[in-house]
Specification:
The structure is a single chain. By secondary structure, the protein is mainly alpha-helical. The protein is built from 16 helices and no strands. Helix 2 packs parallel to helix 4, helix 7 runs antiparallel to helix 9 and helix 10 packs antiparallel against helix 11.
Length: about 290
């Protein structure tokens, strides 16, 4: 049986937490596809390499796709631009990535591919992280997504709200950020994604701390701590925020015990140890080590 666009949803193949499994799924579908759809699948295989930091392999696959694009339709062309851009972006080459994402945005808009247009706007915004340009590009994407019936476009709404909120937070525009964090929480809640809902709640509380609303922030983080206990899980970021709020409320003895918990938990996180050494050292010091 030949797979066509009518009976295949590329996004359903994805297991973003396990790119290797995703690659296997895409490769298994390749033999039953041809033409534009086959090219689309190849771009997604490239993305699985990019997510694993195997950038040369990602570019090799995309080089193969690029050679076949002259007679292809708009969809594989846009996906090619998106995945080439994501590969550059993940490798820290933001300027190269941005040009490709803007190209994807223009082509997707022209071809009325709403889901891919929203994805492109979302990615342009990421290259402008922490700036007014990022907020502007996310707003462009949100405007399309909110009026779209495309599941891919709709699916990106909470992520764009969350990203915009962090951009505003980084710029010190905390009240505006809080509004978007709360909106993102509503969106994730409506989608029934427990892990995402917890992150959204944490983000709201983190912004409340920036607004010096320490009691409110602490209450949310305490509730998250309870959720984790009941589920048999722990979250070092929750411990860290409880500690920060307790310290700001002058409850220093209680804070020290939570700085200790945060230090021990986040010290097990390879990404945190590698990317946040100063933060980890600060936790260690404030835990009394």
């Amino acid at each position: 049986m030949t797979i066509s666009e009518d009976n295949l949803d590329i996004d359903e193949f994805w297991e973003y937490s396990d790119p290797a499994v995703s690659e296997e799924r895409f490769r298994a579908a390749l033999d039953a596809t041809q033409g534009d759809l086959r090219l689309e699948l190849l771009t997604q295989i490239a993305r699985t390499f990019s997510l694993r930091g195997r950038f040369d392999e990602a570019h090799e696959v995309l080089n193969d796709v690029e050679k076949q694009l002259s007679n292809a339709g708009a969809r594989p062309k846009v996906r090619y631009l998106l995945e080439r851009g994501r590969t550059f972006n993940s490798n820290g080459e933001k300027e190269k990535a941005r040009d490709l994402f803007i190209g994807a945005w223009v082509q997707a808009r022209k071809a009325q591919l709403e889901g891919l247009a929203v994805d492109a706007a979302h990615m342009v915004a990421i290259t402008y992280s922490g700036s007014a340009e990022a907020v502007d590009w996310n707003q462009r994407g949100l405007t399309i997504a909110r009026g779209s019936r495309d599941p891919k476009a709709k699916g990106l709404i909470p992520a764009m709200l969350n990203n915009s909120a962090w951009d505003l937070h980084q710029m010190g525009r905390f009240e505006e950020a809080l509004s978007l964090f709360e909106e993102a929480q509503v969106e994730w809640t409506s989608r029934g994604k427990p892990e995402r809902i917890q992150i959204a709640k944490w983000s709201v509380a983190r912004c409340l701390r920036s607004l010096k609303r320490y009691d409110e922030a602490l209450a949310i983080q305490r509730a998250l701590e309870t959720e984790h206990k009941e589920a048999g899980t722990t979250d070092g970021y929750v411990f860290e925020e409880i500690a920060e709020n307790l310290a700001l409320l002058g409850r220093n003895e209680e804070a020290i015990s939570y700085f200790e918990l945060a230090y021990l938990e986040l010290g097990k996180d390879e990404w945190f140890v590698k990317n946040e050494p100063e933060r980890l050292a600060n936790l260690k010091m404030r835990a009394g080590h």
